[in-house]
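Quick one: structure for this chain?
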Amino acid sequence: MPIPAFKDRYLHHWIVEDLRAKMVFIGGPRQVGKTTLVKAIGLSEYKNPAYLNWDSDPDRKAILASQWSKKSDLIIFDEIHKYRKWKNFIKGEYDVHKEEFHIVVTGSARLDLYQRGGDSMMGRYHYYRLHPFSLAEVLGLQTKLVPFKPLVFPDHLPPEASAVLQRLKTFGGFPEPFLKKDPRTLRRFHYERMRRLIKQDIRDVGNLRDLSALQILADLLPGKVGSLFSLNSLREDLEVTHKTISHWVEVLERFYYHFRIYPFAHQAVRSLHREPKLYLWDWSQVEDKAARLENLVASHLLKMVHFLQDVEGHRTQLWFLREAAGREVDFLVTNDKKPWFCVEVKESADDISKQLLYFKERLKIPFAYQVMGEARRDFIKKGVHFISADKFLTGLV
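Got it. Here's what it folds into:
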């Protein structure tokens, strides 16, 4: 079954709105579609957009000389974070010319790297994180998300929802492999993205002498998805110091290779462990079927959380639940540090998880969802919504 045609990425409208008053910075993984998004905005919303990529010799010279068409009403600076003085340059251009043209800055996680320390451009820009395709985005669904209200699902699930979800499971949410839906393209995408990440992007950070060991670490991480993530076990596997492995993992995270979520701290739930759980931005790299589904749901939830932070300004966060006795629930979403809803992901089950019921009651969580990979049943029991993965994901971003 063909997927529906979707014209704009989910952040298109909001970026256009924000550009009326401030600059917009857009971060996200390599090859997630940042350049395509901003070029589409330039072509559809502006008369004379200008695109300048720091990696292009002519564009770099034009940037350094501040030479571009005086008629330009939108300037897109791509990869300019590679310029050591990029912040002062952008700040100066904005302060002098903000009435003449709008500014968009795009880049990988290096934008986050350069946000360390004081921010000389505070109040001059909005920052967005662009995520891979999700089920709701591909289907063109727009759901109003309101903290402490239940998630809203369509009355009738689109007939292509199941097929789109299966395609997302198989090929991931990055545009190239998802749209081409070809195993060969997916394999090449994995290989080339990792090669460029390690040998081009991360190499430029500095203080990373053993890139081959970093590659080994990246190869190990897909097998760690969904379980408690221990730096000590990795340190022993790679025979490096705790400080070194911690730095390597942090660098990979800053470049959007993986993300970590942490156990929710509450006096009613005491945990002996503070280790996080780890997930990949590209869940198609995860071989285990159950772990891949859990990663896919985690990525969809993180996309929702970042949307609420970046667009709406909510203090929404993603956690998991675990206590000393061993009870655990996959995900908890909070707002202003207060539980909003929790989620348990299972490939198959006949009834509600006892651990989900335990935490819902213990923490007085307003809403709980048991998301099933294969079941088509849909019911609510003891305040827990038993729901299929395709239907649940239509209620997110």
